[in-house]
Amino acid sequence: KEPGQRYASANELADDVQRYLAGFPVRARPIGVSGRLVRWAKRNRGMAAALGALAVVVVGALIATTTLLVVAERRRVQAEREHQAALDTVDRLLTELSKTLRNHPGTLELRTALLTAAKEAYESNFAEQTTSNRRLRVESATAAYRLAQIYAGAGDFEKRNQIGQDALSQFQALASQYPDHYDFRFDVFHCHLVLG
User: Fold this and answer.
1) Residues 16, 26 contacting (CB under 8 angstroms)
2) In whole angstroms, how far apart are CA 49 and each of 25, 52, 55, 59?
3) pLDDT digit string (tens) for 4-44?
4) What is the pLDDT of residues 88-118, one digit of tens each?
5) Coil vs helix vs strand at 196
6) Terminus of the chain with fewer CB atoms < 10 Å: N or C?
7) What is the DSSP track for 112-176?
8) Has this prediction a pTM greater than 0.85?
9) What's the distance, CA 3 to chain centroid?
């Protein structure tokens, strides 16, 4: 060996032998991080076991939390699909059917009942989502608008004004919240036409 890599005295050699026997790194040949970690674990078995158990618990908790989050997200997506299916059913069965019956004589009472049921469904079953869900807000306002049209056609101007004002305020709120959607401005205009 090079003279700089040799022990300068017998005492240094004895110190390194003592360090080796005690499980500490020797000066003649330094060991890496993993070697130091293994030797530390051999010297401190209790602490190493506790840290190992803690690591297992932390990893287990992370796996359990991740699994629960994935399951919760799947349930949320499923609930959203079911909610959308219920909304589509209400829209298709009640409002679209009423629109189809518009040109058939003698269906005024049926149309009124259908749109009243649709409006009530939007207001009761979807009430909490109606404030945050734009599509539900549009459907609710549209049902109110159609109902106001029916009352206007039937000559019940008190109900037309009441329901029409409700539709108008809903469309005005949508138009102010979504200024880039010009359809809402047209809806406001149409509500004014129905209200006379």
Assistant:
1) yes
2) 21, 5, 10, 15
3) 666 778 888 888 888 878 877 777 777 788 888 888 898 89
4) 776 677 666 767 777 777 877 787 777 777 7
5) coil
6) N
7) HHHHHHHHHHHHHTTHHHHTT-HHHHHHHHHHHHHHHHHHHHHT-HHHHHHHHHHHHHHHHHHHH
8) no
9) 69
